[in-house]
Every structure is written in structure tokens, then in C-alpha cells.
Write a structure and sequence with these properties.
The complex is a heterodimer of chains A (about 120) and B (about 350).
Chain A: H1 11-34, H2 37-40, E1 43-44, E2 47-48, H3 49-69, H4 77-111
Antiparallel strand pairs in A: 1-2
Helix pairs in contact in A: 1-3
Chain B: H1 25-54, H2 62-65, H3 80-104, H4 108-138, E1 143-146, E2 151-155, H5 197-206, E3 211-217, H6 222-226, E4 240-242, H7 245-252, E5 255-259, H8 272-305, H9 307-311, H10 315-340
Antiparallel strand pairs in B: 1-2, 1-5, 2-3, 3-4
Helix pairs in contact in B: 1-8, 1-10, 3-4, 3-10, 4-8, 8-10
The chains are: A mainly alpha (about 120), B alpha+beta (about 350).
Chain lengths: ~120, ~350
């Protein structure tokens, strides 16, 4: 292992990322408490806009944690792709199957005579 | 793609050399573990999403469940506490990455200091989670389970939640808990609720201002607005439905069990699966934090003893850092799907 190249301290970037993550969390909590009707009452693809906002902000947070804290930005592209693409693909696939199925079951219980609450 | 294999030439068949993908063996294995653990957590959260979509009309509303904040008794403070927990965990991630950074510069003292802060942050987080669980298990208002298995909560005529203790009658309770000493040696039952079903029913009759709140979420559709069972004026969109007094009495005649707090069988918040998923997912995450703290402590001692200084590399700190950030990453998702969405 050669340690000839001097590692530059990235303290400044760490604090910037911390600030970004904190601001996003504060924004999430404010929206969670206020629940603006324009977002909360309007749906897109079966989910209200407020929930979409939360999910997008969460993914932004996840990006900063993985890229800056786990130092994914400094890894080789092959490692980045191996980790991120397999996880992202499998998670989306799983969510798609389970949530569509759950919605179907909800409709069956709602429209048929089966008592759903047990 | 830097690390693909090259079959031409003959002398160079594996472009990755000693470190495929440019990551050392240990780091690569940590990434393997993280990907599989991420998929495990996704499986849990997806199962949670499945149950939630299945019972979308009746799922408990998070900001009515998690309303506690230390030293603020009786104040409804939704989300503040979990937000604080999130900050603590993110901050411990920051100290961890600072430790890794100090490791790159071979500053032993700084690495030890930041590792120590990370451990403290982790311990505070696990403690906070224990407090959160305590409140969840203890419950605040109590509820009634009907014979059909649905859950009834109580509100007054302004829509404010009312606890069982505020109206339960003092009719003498006849039922005695069955313990081993009182029956056969193998016969026993869990702790009885504070009030019997009869006491709740009597108390409800004696308090004409009380109404029953069901699990169902009021959607404000045409059918909902025409529904004669619902108390006029108290039903708000995306809030639980409140029944009229006569409907409430009818529902309460089906009462079957008094529910206080939460356990794996039933909980006073609503859907039974809600508490199960809460315990399982936050518990599994808390277990990850706890193991992370233990591993951090081991690495901390190694740092203090100078093991890595002698080795000439703080890669071990980097590897445990990866795990620690991953735990933080999972919490970000748990926070969203249990408390926000």
C-alpha cells in the first residue's frame, strides 16, 4: 500500500453536508406539523403530494449520507454501480410488487362482503 | 468501468489486481454486508408498506401516537422527539466521519476523541429509543376492542381525546386474575386491564358528552358526508371518524376487551399490525445501533492502544464507519415511513 499521496482534510465538506441534512430534517418536521392542505389533500399516483415530498427529501438525505459520509463519491465507478444499482433495482421491484398487491387486496376487502377488520 | 477483466494479451487477466474495484478486501466485504442488510431492511419496510396499503382506511395516524417529549407532560408534541433523535444520530455520523478523516491524517488523539463522541451519540440514541418504546407500551388514553376486532377510542363533544381513567365507573370489579396458585399449576393469564368492560360501559352511560371514535379515516367523500352514523361538526378530512351518541352506544354494546398501551397482541392505537411493525422494525434498527456501539467501543480501545498507529493505517475505523453510516441511513428511512408519511 502506498501512502505517499497526502490525504487532504475534508472537514469543511463534512460540516456542509451536516448542515444540509439538518436543514432537510427541519423542513420535514415543519411540513409534518403544518401539513399544508394544498399538498396534503392533492394526490399524485395514489399518494398525496406531502408524502411524495417527504420521500423525495428522504432520498436526497440518503444520497448525501452515502455519497459524502460513506465516501461513495471517492470510490470507483464499478463499485458505485455494483452497490447502488443492485440495491435500487431490487428495492423498487419489491416495493412495486408488494404495494400493488396490497392495494388490490384493499379493493377486494372494500368491495366484497368479506369482513376485513380482523 | 475500471475493474473489468481483460482476456487479451495473457499476462493480465484480472484488471482489479489485489483490490478489485479499488477497494480493499475488508471494505468490499463491508459493502457486501451493507447491501444485503439494506435489502433486509427494505423487505421489512416493504412488508410494513404492504400492510399499511392493505389497511389504508384504518391505519393509525402517527402524529396522534408519538406525541411525547421529555419533561413536557400533557403537551402534545408530535415528532419533535424523533426529530431530535434523528439529529443525534446524524451528528454521531458526523463525528464518525470526522474520526475517519483524522485517521487519514494519522492523528491518533483526534480519532480517539471523535470515536468517543460517536459512542456517546449512539448510546443517547439507544436510550431515547428505549424511552420512546416505554411511552408506546404504556399508552396514554386506552381503548376498547369490539367482538369484531375493531378498536374504539373515546372523545368528548369537542373532539378532544378522553382517557379511560377519566370516565370509567367504580362498579366493583368481580374478575380476579387467574394465576398459577389459584387454579391448576399450568393455568395462568396475563395481567388484567385496569378496568373491566362493564366499568367502561357503565362509565360511558354516565357521561352523556362522550362519543366513540372509530379507526376509520374520514375522507370527506359524498358517501362520508351523507353518513348518518357520523357526528356532525366533529369529522375532519384525514382524521378518524367520530360517531353520534346513539351509534356510539350501539358500538360499545359490542365491547369485548379493554386495551391499554401496546403489546404484540393488541394496541390502543389501532391496527394490530401497527404495533408489531413498530416493535420489529425500530427494534431491529435499535439492535443495529446497539451492536454498532459495541463495535465502536472495540475500535475505540484499539485506537487508544495505538494498534492502528502501529499498523500505519486507520482503515478499520473506516470500515466501522461505513457500518455506522449505514445505520444512520436506515434510520432516515424509518423516520420517514413511521413518523412522517
Amino acid at each position: 500500500m502506498d501512502h505517499t499521496h497526502e490525504h487532504v482534510s475534508s472537514t469543511k465538506r463534512i460540516w456542509i453536508v451536516f448542515a444540509i441534512l439538518s436543514v432537510i430534517t427541519i423542513v420535514e418536521v415543519i411540513f409534518g406539523i403544518l401539513k399544508p392542505a394544498s399538498l396534503h389533500m392533492n394526490n399524485f399516483l395514489g399518494m398525496n403530494l406531502l408524502n411524495w415530498l417527504f420521500i423525495i427529501l428522504t432520498i436526497v438525505k440518503a444520497y448525501y449520507i452515502v455519497w459524502a459520509f460513506m465516501h461513495m463519491e471517492g470510490e470507483k465507478a464499478s463499485l458505485r454501480w455494483s452497490v447502488v444499482s443492485s440495491a435500487v433495482f431490487l428495492i423498487i421491484y419489491l416495493l412495486f410488487i408488494l404495494l400493488v398487491e396490497a392495494d388490490y387486496i384493499y379493493e377486494v376487502f372494500r368491495t366484497s362482503t368479506i369482513k376485513w377488520n380482523f | 468501468m475500471e475493474a473489468t477483466t481483460t482476456v487479451t494479451g495473457g499476462e493480465k487477466i484480472w484488471g482489479g489486481g489485489n483490490d478489485p474495484m479499488g477497494a480493499s478486501y475488508g471494505k468490499l466485504m463491508m459493502w457486501f454486508f451493507i447491501v444485503s442488510d439494506a435489502l433486509t431492511f427494505s423487505g421489512f419496510l416493504a412488508a410494513y408498506g404492504f400492510s399499511r396499503f392493505k389497511f389504508i382506511e384504518t391505519w393509525p395516524l402517527a402524529d396522534e401516537v408519538f406525541t411525547h417529549f421529555p419533561f413536557l407532560h400533557g403537551v402534545s408534541a408530535p415528532m419533535y422527539y424523533v426529530a431530535l433523535m434523528t439529529f443525534i444520530l446524524i451528528f454521531s455520523s458526523v463525528t464518525m466521519v470526522l474520526a475517519v478523516d483524522a485517521g487519514h491524517q494519522m492523528k491518533q488523539g483526534k480519532v480517539a476523541f471523535y470515536m468517543f463522541l460517536t459512542i456517546i451519540g449512539g448510546l443517547i440514541f439507544v436510550g431515547s429509543q428505549a424511552w420512546e418504546w416505554k411511552n408506546f407500551i404504556k399508552g396514554e388514553y386506552g381503548a376498547i376492542e369490539t367482538k369484531g376486532g375493531s378498536l374504539l377510542q373515546f372523545v368528548d363533544n369537542t373532539g378532544k381525546r378522553v382517557a379511560l381513567a377519566e370516565f370509567a365507573s367504580t362498579t366493583p370489579q368481580v374478575r380476579v386474575r387467574l394465576e398459577r396458585g389459584k387454579g391448576m399449576w399450568f393455568m395462568e393469564e396475563p395481567t388484567l386491564p385496569t378496568y373491566s368492560v362493564q366499568q367502561i360501559q357503565d362509565g360511558f352511560k354516565a357521561h352523556p358528552e362522550l362519543l366513540v371514535r372509530t379507526e376509520r379515516i374520514f375522507q370527506g367523500t359524498e358517501a362520508d358526508l351523507k353518513d348518518k352514523r357520523l357526528q356532525p361538526g366533529l369529522n375532519k378530512i384525514k382524521h378518524k371518524e367520530v360517531l353520534t351518541r346513539s351509534e356510539s352506544e350501539g358500538m360499545l354494546n359490542n365491547a369485548h376487551y379493554v386495551v391499554e398501551g401496546a403489546n404484540l397482541t393488541r394496541n390502543e392505537y389501532g391496527s394490530k399490525l401497527f404495533a408489531n411493525f413498530f416493535f420489529f422494525i425500530t427494534g431491529f434498527h435499535g439492535f443495529h445501533v446497539f451492536s454498532g456501539v459495541l463495535i465502536n467501543i472495540l475500535i475505540f480501545f484499539n485506537v487508544v492502544l495505538g494498534t492502528y498507529q502501529k499498523r500505519g493505517s486507520y482503515e478499520m475505523v473506516e470500515k466501522v464507519g461505513l457500518y455506522w453510516h449505514f445505520v444512520d441511513l436506515v434510520w432516515v428511512f424509518v423516520f420517514t415511513f413511521f413518523y412522517l408519511v
